[in-house]
Design brief:
The protein is built from six helices and two strands. It is mainly alpha-helical.
Length: 273
C-alpha cells in the first residue's frame, strides 16, 4: 500500500537504525571504559557480584596494611632483642674476667664500668624499640593484635618483656661486678638471662613468620579476587573492535535503507501526472 500518511518501510528502517545506533553506543562505551559491565544497567546480577568482590578487595587492602604495621613492630622488637643478646654476651665476658681471682682492683673497676655501660645500653634499647608508638618488649603492650582476614578475624603476637630485672632478662637494673664475689654471682645470672632471651627471640621470630605468611596469603587472595572481577566485567577489546566495525557498516546500510524508504512516497506523485 502506498500512502503519504503512513510509511511502514521508513518506520521499520528507522527502528533498525536506532537499534544499530544503541548497540554502537554500547560498544563505544565498552571500548572507552574497558568494561563490559560498567553499571548496574548493563547487567544487574554481574554488577552486584563484582561490587561485592570489590568490597572484599578493599577490605583485604586494609588487612594488608594492618599486617604490614604489625610485622614492622615485631621486626623492630626482634632487632632490639638481637642487639640485647649481643650486649649480654659482652656482659658475660666482662663478668668472667672480673671473677678472675688474679684481677686487681683497678682492672676489675674498669671492667665494672664497661659492664654498667652495657647494662644502661640494654635499658636504652628496650625503651626505644617502638614502631608507630607501639613497643612489645618493655611490658607496655603485652598482646599485639592485627587483622588477618576481610571477615575481621585476628592474628595475635604476644609481647616479651625484655626489661632489666624482669623474668627474661634477670640482670638487675643496678647490677655491678665491682667485686670478685659479685662477678661470680653475675656469671650465673647472665647465663640465665641469655637462655631466657634466646627463647623469647624464638617466640618473636615465630610470630614474625606467621605475620609474613599471612601477608603473602592476603596479597595472593587480593590478586585472585581482582582477576575474578576482571573476568566478570572486563570487555574483550578485540571482540569489541570487530563488533564496532560491523556496526559501522550496519549503520551506513541503515541510513541508506531509511533514505530509500523515505523516497517511496514520491512514487505516489507519478500516479497523478
Amino acid at each position: 500500500m502506498l500512502s503519504v500518511n503512513t510509511n511502514v518501510g521508513a518506520m521499520i528502517a528507522l527502528q533498525n537504525l536506532n537499534k544499530t545506533n544503541a548497540e554502537m553506543n554500547q560498544t563505544q562505551n565498552r571500548i572507552n571504559t574497558g568494561l563490559s559491565v560498567a553499571t548496574a544497567k548493563d547487567n544487574g546480577g554481574i554488577y552486584a557480584i563484582a561490587q561485592s568482590m570489590r568490597g572484599d578487595v578493599g577490605a583485604l587492602s586494609a588487612v594488608g596494611q594492618s599486617l604490614n604495621r604489625a610485622k614492622s613492630i615485631v621486626d623492630v622488637a626482634l632487632a632490639a632483642g638481637e642487639a640485647i643478646s649481643d650486649l649480654i654476651v659482652q656482659m658475660k665476658e666482662k663478668a668472667v674476667s672480673a671473677a678472675d681471682l688474679s684481677q686487681d682492683t683497678v682492672s676489675r673497676s674498669a671492667l665494672n664500668e664497661d659492664f654498667m655501660a652495657l647494662r644502661k645500653q640494654i635499658a636504652s634499647i628496650v625503651s626505644n624499640a617502638a614502631f608507630n608508638n607501639v613497643n612489645i618488649i618493655n611490658n607496655t603492650t603485652t598482646r599485639l593484635e592485627t587483622l588477618a582476614s576481610a571477615s575481621g578475624s585476628r592474628l595475635t603476637v604476644l609481647g616479651e618483656n625484655l626489661s632489666l630485672s624482669g623474668a627474661i632478662v634477670t640482670i638487675s637494673s643496678t647490677a655491678q661486678i665491682n667485686t670478685q664475689s659479685a662477678a661470680s654471682t653475675m656469671m650465673a645470672t647472665v647465663n640465665t638471662s641469655l637462655t631466657n632471651l634466646n627463647r623469647a627471640l624464638a617466640r618473636l621470630g615465630t610470630g614474625a613468620k606467621r605475620l609474613e605468611l599471612q601477608e603473602v596469603f592476603v596479597s595472593k587472595l587480593s590478586d585472585s579476587l581482582k582477576a575474578g572481577i576482571g573476568n566478570l566485567v572486563d570487555a574483550d577489546l578485540a571482540v569489541e573492535s570487530a563488533r564496532l566495525q560491523s556496526l559501522q557498516v550496519k549503520q551506513q546500510l541503515g541510513v541508506q535503507a531509511l533514505s530509500i524508504a523515505n523516497s517511496s512516497p514520491r512514487i505516489i506523485s507519478s500516479l497523478f501526472q
